[in-house]
Every structure is written in structure tokens, then in C-alpha cells.
Amino acid sequence: MKSGHIRLHLVHEVLKSKQVQLGQRKMDEKLKQYRESINNIDAALVFMLAERFKVTQAVGEYKAKNSLPPADGAREQEQIARLRQLASDANLDPEFSEKFLRFIIDEVIRHHERIRSEG
Fold first, then answer.
1. For residues 76, 78, 83 and 85, what is the CA-based torsion angle, rounded to 10 degrees?
2. Distance between CA atoms of residues 110 and 104, nearest Å
3. How confident is the model at residue 72 (pLDDT cuts 50, 70, 90)?
4. Which CATH class is domain 3-118?
5. 56 and 108 in contact (C-beta within 8 Å)?
6. Over the stretch 75-113, which tens digit does the pLDDT of each residue have?
7. Predicted confidence band at 22 (pLDDT cuts at 50, 70, 90)?
8. Residue 16: what pLDDT?
9. Gap between the Cα atoms of 16 and 68, Å rounded
10. What is the pTM of this model?
């Protein structure tokens, strides 16, 4: 390759590299924005779960004081059906939402059992 062609080729490669870097920065900025949104949503979820557990703690204390069982199968089934419908309406996998709620319900029941045994 002649020296003029080599220089032109090198300039072209440098420009291509700069375009890739600019594109990467734009992509990185977009990815950063997505991640910031995810972080905000995660924070909201944590605070909502904390509020939910405060209420279920009060329910557990109420049940213990009134000799009610820690678990209520009928209520759990209603909640699961309701959440599956909400998930479906929101285009979220109902199976996922049921697993998520089941995990929460199991944890709440565990707390209710502990409250009952301490009372």
C-alpha cells in the first residue's frame, strides 16, 4: 500500500473507532438510564414490601390475641387468584406472580406462627 493510502486507511480506522466510542457512550448512557429506573423500582418494591410486612405483623398479632390460625387457606387462594389476574392484565407471567406471592405468604405465615408461639 502506498503511504497516502496507508494514511487514508489509518484516518478511516480512527474515525470508525471514534464512531464506535460515541455509539458506546450513547449506549452506555441509555443503559445507565435503564439501570437507574430499575434501581428506583427496586427501592419502591422494598419499601412496599416493608409496609406490607408491617400490616401483616399487625394481622399476626391480632390473630394470636384472638386465637385465630396463622394461615387462612381460603384467603390465600383468593389472593393468588386476584394477583394472577392483575399479572395477566399487566402482561406479566401469572406463574411468576403466583410464585412471588406464595413466597411472601409463606414468610407471613412463618411470622404469624412465631408471634403465636411467643404469645
1. 150
2. 10
3. very high
4. mainly alpha
5. yes
6. 999 999 999 999 999 999 999 999 999 999 999 999 999
7. low
8. 74
9. 71
10. 0.69
AA letter at 10: L
Q: How far apart are CA 96 and CA 89, in angstroms?
A: 14
Mean pLDDT over the full length of the chain: 88
Asked if residue 70 lies in contact with residue 80, where contact means CB atoms within 8 angstroms, the answer is: no
Cell numbers standing for residue 118: 411467643
Grid coordinates given for 82: 386476584
Q: Are 68 and 116 in contact (CB under 8 A)?
A: no
Residue 68 and residue 90: Cα distance in Å, rounded?
34
What count of other Cβ atoms lies within 10 Å of the Cβ of residue 106? 12
How far is residue 101 from each of residues 7, 56, 119, measured CA to CA in Å? Answer: 64, 13, 27
The grid cell for 9 is: 486507511
Written as nine digits, the cell of 108 is 407471613
Which pLDDT does position 26 carry in this prediction?
74
